[in-house]
Amino acid sequence: MNIEQLVKPFSLLFDLKNGLSDDIESTKRNLSKMKGMYADNEALESILEKEDTLAYEFYELELPNEDNNLLFGTSIVYPGKVGNEFFMTKGHFHNVIDTAEVYYCLSGEGYLLMENPEGDWAAEEFTPGKAVYAPGRYAHRSVNIGDEPLVTFFVFRADAGHDYGTIEEKGFRKLIVDNSGKVEIVDNPKWKNNR
Ligand SMILES: [Fe+2]
Question: From ligand 1's centre to the CA of 96, what distance in Å?
Fold first, then answer.
């Protein structure tokens, strides 16, 4: 191993309830960074006229992006909706598309929405204590359907990388929406099957 890539043992504290760590700085995604991600653009613009709400935050470790390292941290999706669509992460494929990832739900309620280029999709429930496996080739997005922060802990191989662009361009096949108080998974009318 290259001595410059040698990682020393370390530990970090993540709060079980709010997911936050005082040890490192989080990456924050306000709604202004989510333009085009929600089905209802007008609803997003009308929220942004009043306030640039923090939709989610997560931690990115600065470890060498080598296949012998692991990246881990928490993701915190705040409660809220754009139109009838629940707050969510952008979602991504991995650049090394065959790389899997594990999410463990610490608090809150929601789904890990997944889909692969071959046409399969799934929405696995997040409730505290539940571990969800996102296999290789599946894009993944966290969706908060509750009224408290959805906090998950994730681990994946450090060379995987993030392909946000494909989802920014074509979206997910499915949306998770509030239909008069009922959570529903519906087809995304804007989804583009052009991968
Ligand atoms: Fe991932």
Answer: 10
Q: 162 C-alpha vs ligand 1 centroid, how far in Å?
A: 7
Amino acid symbol at 59: Y
In this prediction, residues 77-105 reach a mean pLDDT of: 98
Domains of the chain with CATH codes: 14-187 (2.60.120.10)
Binned at pLDDT 50, 70 and 90, residue 192 comes out as: confident
pTM exceeds 0.90: yes
Each residue's pLDDT tens digit, 25-50? 999 999 999 999 999 999 999 999 99
Q: How far is the CA of 140 from the centre of ligand 1 (A)?
A: 6
Ligand 1 centroid–CA 34 distance in Å is 18
Cα-to-centroid distance, 40 and ligand 1 (Å)? 25
SS3 letters across 102-168: EEEEEECCEEEEEECCCCCEEEEEECCCCEEEECCCCEEEEEECCCCCEEEEEEEECCCCCECHHHH
